[in-house]
């Protein structure tokens, strides 16, 4: 992990290594390859896998002090990786869905949902996940999952009613 170092005029000079906790560096070295293989198995291509692993380690670093207090650090870090990979998969699904054309305008309406609402709808109705699974994946409470689902359904109903009335593509 590096950060750009700039001269007084703003031009890049070099990359300096960020000071990382020694234990974090050990965790990184011990898990980076396994994390990458896992991400590669679930995502489309090496670039996506590398990006997901990078995001996962940044998330781990952001919560490092709290993670050190957990009874099973390894389990918690893998949970973070799985969440990041699922997030990447949902983003990929949204991009693919945006390319589809349908007569009812449903795909466009789905793609217009805010990210959390989209994620909940896809996880619940496409992947058939239970509320407790969705809650875990997204890192939110059960009631928050239900709220996002309810709001997404309301938004989709309004968009589809508008489309049926002939008011154009649902947004």
Tell me about this structure.
The protein has eight helices and two strands; from the N terminus they run ββαααααααα. By secondary structure, the protein is mainly α. Helix 2 crosses helix 4. It starts with a strand and ends in a 7-residue tail after the last helix.
Label the overall shape.
elongated
- The assigned structural class equals mainly alpha
> What's the main sheet like?
2 strands, antiparallel
Strand-and-helix sequence, N→C?
EEHHHHHHHH
Strand content: 5-15%
How big is the Rg? 20 Å
Poorly predicted spans: none
Q: Tell me how many strands there are.
A: 2
User: What share of the residues lie within helices?
Assistant: 55-70%
As laid out across the biggest beta sheet, the strand order is 1-2
What is the residue-averaged pLDDT? 86
Question: What distance lies between the first and last C-alpha atoms, to the nearest angstrom?
Answer: 40 Å
Number of helices: 8
Characterize this entry briefly.
This protein is mainly α and 171 residues long. The protein has helices spanning 22-42, 46-62, 64-68, 73-99, 106-111, 115-126, 131-138, 142-164, and strands at 2-6, 12-17. It is 70% helix and 6% strand.
